[in-house]
Specification:
Layout (H helix, E strand, L loop, with lengths): L3 E10 L4 E7 L29 E9 L4 E10 L13 E8 L7 E3 L10 E9 L2 H4 L3 E8 L7 E9 L11 E4 L16 E9 L15 E11 L11 E8 L8 E2 L10 E11 L8 E8 L6 E8 L5 E2 L2 E2 L7 H12 L5 E6 L4
Parallel strand pairs: 1-15
Antiparallel strand pairs: 1-2, 3-4, 3-10, 4-7, 5-6, 5-8, 8-9, 11-12, 11-20, 12-15, 13-14, 13-16, 16-17, 18-19
């Protein structure tokens, strides 16, 4: 039930280091079976639980390793999400806002059936001290739901510029209701909801009529939330897609334009074929969101899905710069052949 289905043939030439592409259309009715949702710090939560309780943590910066460390110790007296069963399955998540260093999120393990979880985990960021001091730490506690309908339990936000870095001790802090700064941060550009899948060559078996002779990467752009509103009437947005290193018109695909909506639903699928498993280490799927106007289009934000190694077929490239969250999303696709991997990724400047 996707809005549009496009398929691009992607044939890699190892000697030239660049792909040559031909295109044709494809029916992608199978994507209608995919459903679900994942939440991040940038989106609303499903629960209606009032924030309560406290969290114990300590902050430190290791000058030698240039590493920011958040030691999450424990929480006490958290809200109960499932009142019938009297349970919460909490975990702690951190973001650096407004994420100018593109560091993404960190989170602890999930502790089941407790409102007094003990973690004793260290969340680490490789970041220069001078960059860290212009950001804020957002630490939030969430109830983990198996279906992805996670509930917000409370948060605390710390301005790192004014933090006392001589204080390395564990301290208790009260959890507060949702603040607007995490949602409307200076660099917040919105969140893209999408699914991806890799189908290896011949993996579906000879009896399958749609068994691809070469590998395929399927990209299902579902929707985008909280886009920047550039004018009072809203935003007329569309999504562009390239598989880098190819930036030719044959690699280029785009969705239709959704008018006057900061939460556009695209439901658009694209298939790139000609992939071999080893190509996934060197290619990068770039998805960018644009505001459409008659004279010029305005860039709103984007994501790059790849391994983020800085290299493509042995050549140093600046676009192989995926964040940790984007890398983890791509790696999960690589390790789960023929399975849809769903994610909710924050848009960023590229």
């Amino acid at each position: 039930e996707s809005d549009t289905a496009s398929e691009i043939s992607f044939q890699f030439n190892k000697h030239k280091k660049t792909p040559s592409i031909g295109s044709h259309s494809s029916d992608m009715a199978s994507v209608s079976s995919v459903s679900g949702s994942v939440l991040s710090v940038y989106s609303g939560d499903f629960g209606s639980v009032d924030a309560q309780g406290t969290v114990e943590f300590a902050l430190d910066y290791d000058e030698k390793s240039r590493e920011f460390q958040v030691h999450v110790s424990q929480c006490r007296d958290l809200a109960v999400v499932d009142e019938k069963k009297g349970r919460s399955d909490p975990y702690v998540k951190t973001y650096l806002l407004p994420d100018k260093a593109r560091m993404g999120k960190r989170k602890t393990s999930v502790k089941k059936r407790t409102v007094n979880p003990i973690y004793n985990e260290v969340l680490r960021y490789k970041i220069e001290k001078m960059v860290l001091l212009i950001q804020k730490l957002n630490l939030s506690v969430w109830h983990n739901d198996p279906l992805g309908r996670n509930s917000f339990l409370g948060e605390i936000e710390i301005d790192l510029a004014s933090w006392d870095w001589s204080n390395r001790k564990l301290n208790w802090y009260p959890l507060k209701p949702r603040s607007l700064s995490a949602v409307n941060g200076a660099d917040h550009r919105g969140v893209m909801n999408l699914s991806i899948k890799y189908v290896p060559p011949g993996s579906l078996g000879k009896t399958c009529p749609k068994n691809p002779p070469s590998g395929e990467v399927h990209i299902w752009v579902k929707d985008v939330k909280d886009l920047l509103q550039l004018r009072p009437s809203g935003v007329d947005s569309f999504v562009k897609c390239y598989v880098l290193p190819d930036t030719s018109k044959k690699s280029y695909q785009k969705t239709r334009v959704i008018k006057r909506d900061t939460n556009p639903v695209f439901n658009h699928t694209i298939v790139y074929d000609g992939f071999h498993t080893e190509d996934l280490k060197d290619a990068c799927v770039e998805l960018t969101v644009w505001d459409h106007e008659k004279l010029t289009n305005h860039f709103l934000g984007g994501i790059r899905l790849g391994l983020g190694t800085g290299l493509s077929y042995g050549i140093s490239v600046d676009w192989m710069d995926s964040t940790q969250e984007e890398v983890a999303f791509w790696q999960e696709m690589m390790s789960a052949a023929n399975e849809w991997i769903e994610g909710l990724l924050p848009l960023r400047s590229l």
